[in-house]
Each structure stands twice: as C-alpha cells, then as structure tokens.
Amino acid sequence: MTTATLERTLDVDFYHVQELLADEEQERAVRIREALEQHVTPIIEDHWERAEFPHQIKPIFPELGVYGPLWEESRLWENTALYRGWVALEFGRNDASVATFVGVHSGLAMNAIGMCGDAGQRAEWLPRMARGELIGAFGLTEPLHGSDTARGLETTARRVGGEWVLDGAKRWIGNATFADVVVIWARDVADDQVKGFIVETATSPGFTATKIERKQSLRVVQNADITLEGVRVPEERRLQLGNGFRDTARVLALTRAEVAWQAVGNAVGAYEAAVRYVTEREQFGRPLASFQLVQDLLARSLGNITASIAMCTRLSQLMDEGRPYDQQAALAKAFVTARGREVVGWCREALGGNGIQLDQGVARRFADAEALYTYEGTYQMNNLIVGRSITGKSAFV
C-alpha cells in the first residue's frame, strides 16, 4: 500500500476493509474520490436545490474507468466486485444522485446489454457507452406497476416482420430526459414473455420522455415519465439473450448489490459531515463533540456503517467467487438502506436546527436516503426474497 493511499483512507473505514483491495484498486479508488471532491462537491448542493443535473461533470467518468467494468468490450482493466462496490460507496459518499446516474447508465443499461445482449450487441453498444459517447437508461417500472412488474408489466411488444412495435408507458426512469439509449422492457404479446429492446431516443418516433417534477429526494436525478406510442425497433435491437423476466431479474440482482454500497456511501457522507460540524460548533462554551449524547449518536452511526460495510464486503466476495448471491444481495440492500436511514436521522439530530440546511451536507443525504430505501426493490420486497429463501415459500401475493 502506498503512502498516498494510507493518507487517503476514510476514517469511517473503522475495520480497515479497504485494505482488502489490491494496491492498484486502492489507488484507483482514491483517484475517483479526489475527482469527485474536485468536480462534484463544489457544485452539487446548488444543483440539488435547483433539481438540475450538472452535465459538465459527465466527461470525467469515462476517464476514471467507472462505466461498464464487467465486460470485456468496455472494461479498461481487470477488477473485482469488491472494488466496484467500494467505487459505488465513493460515489454515494459524494452524492447519491450522481451515484444513481452512474448506476443507471453503467449498472442497469450497460449490464442489461452485457447480460442479455449477444456478442454483436455487446460489441456495438458497450464501447461507446463506456466512452460516454452514449448515455443509457433502463425502462422497467411503469405508472401502475413497480413491485409487481414481473407479473403486471403492461408495455407490449408486437412482432411485425423484421421489427417490433412497442406501446405503453414507463415511470421513474432515471437519465431518461437526456439518454441516447433506453433499454425498454416489454411483454411480447405472442408468448407473454418479457423481452428487452434497445431504443435510440433521437431516432424513435413515438418515444417521449417528460421530466418528473417536485421531487424531494435524489433531485439531481432526471427521472422521467416515458410514453411509447407505436415505437418501432428492429429485431437486431432486441436483446437476443433476454427471453423472460428471469433474465431481467439477473440484471436487477447485480445492480442491487451496487445500490447497497451506494446507500452505505450516502450514510458515510452524512456521518462525515456530522463529525465535522460537531467538532467545529460550540455550545455552552465547548465543542458539541465533547458532549456524551453527541458521541453516542456518532458511535451508533459508525456501528451501522461498519456493519453495513462488512455485509456488503462479504456479498462482493461471494460475487467474486462466482457463487449465487441473489438472496444475499436482497438482504444487503434491505438491511443497509434501513440502517442508512437511521444514520442520516442521527446525523441530522447531531446538527440540531442547522441539520435541515443544505450547506451543512446532511439535509441532502437525509432526503436521498428515502429514495435509496425504496428503489431497486422496496425494503419489504427484498425481505420477501429473503423470506422465500428461508422458508421455501413465496409470500409475494
């Protein structure tokens, strides 16, 4: 381990988990951390308040090699799931909205093509997406169907000669207002199976994306309502290895692990902001950090964060070992986001009234924790995945 890496190790990594990464991985994680602090930290609060995405930061991400690291066609170097998890933590620590942007583009859209596309489709799309030439989105959730998407998906796909015709609507689709490519999941009217389609937004008449306004969480993420009215997609844009919702679920399980790491990062960011604040702020003639009740809040927060890092680390190790991890990813996502909600609440409490002000670095993370708790499977739905594993019985309906 280099001296620079030692100096940049996060204080919150109380059990020194980052040392499990290879030296090169640690150095790359540090470079990502520094780039985020240089380019994102100074501007993110203002963009969050205005609910605008800072498009000027997009060019830095291909240079950092964070897009599509799983796939031969798009990765710059060999890496581990543990490294990818730590990178997700670094993004979440800086800003959950920016982490979500990367997660949607790389984790959902690129992984959908990587896992469900054939070799030709991976070669055609993944390199350009890894270079940031094309930005992706992932269209699964619908206005009337979120948790029950597996059975309730209403968007339809009809085969007409060498094309497919898509009709329906999607909701809460991140990146969709400016994405170049959206992977749309639709139910084939012929065999009732869910299939994925690569839709190029600029050249697809009938495709409309409208920004969802008045959000109070992940405000920088440009979520959209999508309408699909007779959108025609050639057969070569259908994901050739995605032949049912089971394949869609494989993509979600992979990204669910990443969301868990992002949620840890969001809690870390709130905790670090709280530590800074109570160290500097004085009341009754002494720093807040010297009061027992404040230290109790910080210790409980650190305990939650440490437990979450440990769980996510073992999950990533299972992924690196090639072992099944769907149920473990569900448990991690549910547990970590619930513990994260506690952490951001305790951190806001430590700041008193100032905790609701954006400038202090906790209010944004307090609000964003709610979205992390809900998307990529709600707390309850992920627990039902775990419950099915425990009992062998499905309780989804």
Automatic annotation (TrEMBL):
Domain of life: Bacteria
Domain Acyl-CoA dehydrogenase/oxidase C-terminal per the UniProt entry, residue ranges: 242-390
Ranges of residues in domain Acyl-CoA dehydrogenase/oxidase N-terminal: 23-133
Keyword Oxidoreductase attributed: yes
Cofactor: FAD
Gene Ontology biological-process annotations: fatty acid beta-oxidation
GO molecular function, one term: acyl-CoA dehydrogenase activity
Alphabetized PROSITE patterns for the sequence: ACYL_COA_DH_2
Acyl-CoA oxidase/dehydrogenase middle domain location: 137-231
Record protein name field: Acyl-CoA dehydrogenase
UniProt organism field: Protaetiibacter intestinalis
